[in-house]
UniProtKB/TrEMBL annotation:
The lineage of its organism: Eukaryota, Viridiplantae, Streptophyta, Embryophyta, Tracheophyta. Its main location: plastid. Keywords: Plastid, Ribonucleoprotein, Ribosomal protein, RNA-binding, rRNA-binding. Gene3D superfamilies: Ribosomal protein L22/L17. Belongs to the universal ribosomal protein uL22 family. InterPro entries: Ribosomal_uL22, Ribosomal_uL22_bac/chlpt-type, Ribosomal_uL22_bac/org-type, Ribosomal_uL22_sf. One of its GO terms (biological process) is translation. It comes from Maranta leuconeura. GO terms for molecular function: rRNA binding; structural constituent of ribosome. It is found in: Plastid. GO terms for cellular component: large ribosomal subunit; plastid. This is Large ribosomal subunit protein uL22c.
Amino acid sequence: MIKNSSSEIQILAQHICNMSVFKVRRVIDQICGRSYEETLMILELMPYRASYPILKLVYSAAKNASHNMGLNEADSFISEAKVNRSTIVKKLRPRARGRSYPIKRPTCHIAIVLKLKDKSKLILDQSKIKI
């Protein structure tokens, strides 16, 4: 976890999930800019394999923010989410006649930034709900 300011939490997971960056990016694009609770609901219902490691990462970031900095999880949202390429794990698979076939497994780095919503926006959102 990397702490930038009092209302922002950055978390980075390196060499995560043995899957392509493109497969993870289609899930990350769905949650960027959404609230914490909405993000959890979206990730739990998505049918993709990449959604579970991202769900664990978002959950961990929110728990770190509440424990270390005393921030409320319900008032946070995903301000930024990035996926970058990492190393490629290379293996050899035995084939016929003593030959081998290379297996390439891509890995990726996932970075998520949680921010607190502005208090002025929270008051406006609550006033809209009451009306």
